[in-house]
């Protein structure tokens, strides 16, 4: 259950980053250690997606100096991929709950 809570925490941080008024690249440091660890536990694809997000962040930082339209497209792409990473992480969260035999009905019976 601890891993499920950690995945949820990563997802909440991503939602805060993407939907906040300002997305500072330094925010990605918040999810770097935990996000990589959880991604590696799920799949290589999820880890690769997170690394692509980190690389796109570096490209966006340098591209926004010119204020070109493609820089804003890269910014939206980066944010979308970060949201996709978060959803993918949470989907495996639900699978872990089902494989552990935890359902909403079993939780309500315990209370």
Number of strands: 0
Distance between the termini: 17 Å
Strand content: under 5%
State the assembly state of the protein chains: single chain
H and E order: HHHHH
- Return residue spans where pLDDT drops below 50 for at least 5 consecutive residues: none
Number of helices: 5
Helical content (DSSP H or I, runs of 4+): over 70%
What is the average per-residue confidence, as pLDDT, rounded to a whole number? 84
- Globular, elongated, flat, extended or rod-shaped: what is the shape? elongated
Largest sheet: none
Structural class: mainly alpha
CA radius of gyration = 16 Å
Blueprint (SSEs and pairs):
Layout: H1 2-19, H2 28-42, H3 44-63, H4 69-99, H5 104-110
What does this protein look like?
This protein is mainly α and 111 residues long. The chain has helices at residues 2-19, 28-42, 44-63, 69-99, 104-110. The model has no long low-confidence stretch (mean pLDDT 84).
């Amino acid at each position: 259950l601890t891993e499920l809570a950690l995945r949820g925490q990563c997802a909440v941080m991503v939602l805060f980053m993407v939907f906040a008024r300002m997305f500072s690249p330094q925010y990605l440091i918040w999810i770097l250690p935990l996000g990589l660890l959880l991604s590696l536990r799920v799949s290589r694809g999820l880890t690769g997606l997170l690394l692509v997000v980190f690389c796109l962040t570096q490209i966006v930082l340098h591209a926004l100096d010119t204020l070109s339209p493609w820089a804003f497209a890269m910014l939206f792409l980066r944010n979308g991929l970060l949201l996709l990473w978060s959803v993918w992480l949470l989907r495996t969260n639900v699978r872990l709950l089902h494989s552990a035999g935890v359902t909403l009905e079993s939780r309500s019976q315990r209370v």
